[in-house]
Amino acid sequence: MSVVEPALSETQLAAFSETLAEGAIEYDGLAAEYDADEETYHIETPDRHATVDADALDTVAAEQAAYITNWYFYTQAVGSEVKQAFCRWLELADDHSVPDRYDALESGIAREWGQLSITTTLADDGTRHYEVRHIDDSDVDADALTTHTDPFDARDIGTLDADGRYRPLRTAPSLDSGWIFPDLAADEVYEAVEAFYPATVVNWHREQRGELDIDHWRDEQDRQSGIYNLITVLPDEAVEWAAAACCDDSQCLKRREWQLSEDEPLDADGGDGVFPCREPCSMVVAAGREWAKLEREDTQTYEFELTPSEKDQLEAIIDSVADDEIDEIREADIGNGANRWRVRYLREKRFDDEGNLSGTPTHPDGHDPDDGGDDH
Amino acid sequence: MQSLVIVAHGSHLNPDSATPTHTHADTIRKTGAFDEVRTGFWKEEPSLREVLRTARGDDIYVVPLFISEGYFTERVIPRELRLEGWDPDLWDSEGISADTATLVASDIDKEVHYCGPVGTHEAMTDVLIRRAESVTGDPSVGDGFGFAVVGHGTERNEKSAKAIEYHTERVRETGRFDEVKALYMDEEPEVDDVTEHFDSEDIIVVPLFIADGFHTQEDIPEDMGLTDDYRTGYDVPAEVDGHRIWYGGAVGTEELTADVILERAADAGADIGDAIERVRQQTKPTTLVAGD
After folding, report:
1. Coiled coil where (chain B) (predicted)?
2. Of chain B's two ends, which shows fewer C-beta atoms within 10 Å, N or C?
3. Domain that holds residue A230
4. Is the domain of B16 the same as that of B130?
């Protein structure tokens, strides 16, 4: 494998000398300054100190040139602090020196952001190129994937899952595969990730700086108005159940950082995601409203006739739906309680003409509360 | 550096709800009038809570892609964006004249220009007329045609009817259509009886809604009798009671809506050069471009 031989372009040299004319540079292992009296540049990198004449900047050793192209890329070519931090994370910049990274970038450094696999590679002039694909497509030949060049295409790719169902939660682990962005620039890879997983990079960056602002459940409750006022009556234990049900890694790739309140942590696992979840999302709030309505009901004692296997079966059905495993149950796997024939058999046997389990009415007193609601 | 932030409702259930927002954002992005165009949603991501932190501009213009002033523009959006000191009186509007207010958003500790909703801007009248042209395929449509602007009614928001009446009157003032009337989904005069409200054989019907969804794709076509079952579709025009109904769907999906977003930002002080004119040209139906 050949090692990248950095070549400083005229643009890079001009930017370097213009910046040094303003003051010294210290960036990522590079320390440089301009001596106006001597008209020379002092360039210091971890393993090399050099002094070169003003007109001989283009003769710096390859190792030092690498540090300069690295400085140029991050400070002159990448648009903002957030993008810089993200691109640096993508190439493990905090863990490895510039020469080590340049070696590794030759073949590419791949990192995962949610279900995205993002591979950074390097051009001779230090410019980074980014390839983005689904983690499930890591080993797939690029020719077999649908090529995209516009980072905003990510929005459409993320709208529906593989079964064509709408994904209202962009960070749900249901991103469809089969596509590739083979060559994005730094600003573009940021936009693509922003479109796939909105606001995740900026919140991750706030967290990196120790500045993540977390709004806990009680803050969320206090802020609501209109129909969502209802979540103020959701019992605390229901918030625990909701967090365990909705915010698990199997449902959302954000790492839940919000709790009941700052002093009242939830027991539910917040997940291992790279990017944080800083407040209950609109999906959780909308679901919380439904649960607030449902939790207003009192429990009631019912009597059902079920065989032990039928009780097991009901539990298996609930598990299969909750774990989204229905599609994996084979047609003829009658031994699985959630198999369609098994469920249809149970319905035939245990439902009466009104659809009541074991003929037991849901509302023995005939009262059937209206379950109104809308999507606002 | 200038940023445009378009905020909209979005939906947990309907993937098309955000489509106009994204389409208009793309149109404006292509003009280069703003250094960046961001979108934020009440029901989708990035949320209204987090959209401002995705914007980097020194001058940030927030334009609500909503039809009317009311609960969302006056209460929900300012609260979620954390606009310090917000008060609906800052817009000094009785329902259709909200323009802009400049406030610090505490989420980013920066001033943002919070604009009135797209739906009550006078330029929205042009979008309604453009929709009449695009749905009939006739750039000079008018003579012999009636025009119905359809709204929700006042049940959920008393100001929503004001926007409907405002644009209805403005379309009427152009003198271009034989008859122009406001119809409502949940109050008189009702869109169900559209043919009773017009003498004209041809009636253009355009809902003043931002996105197509349950109301514009299911309720209204069925209520007007364009179809018995929205799933089977309907003709444009469709024959109903001896009239031809040219049903246009939600006006907010018309490409020219991007122009109204630009107008809102420009009214608030954004420097957008000739972007408005370019969007007007670019979004003209091809029949018009060919005729120019």
Report:
1. none
2. C
3. 217-294
4. no
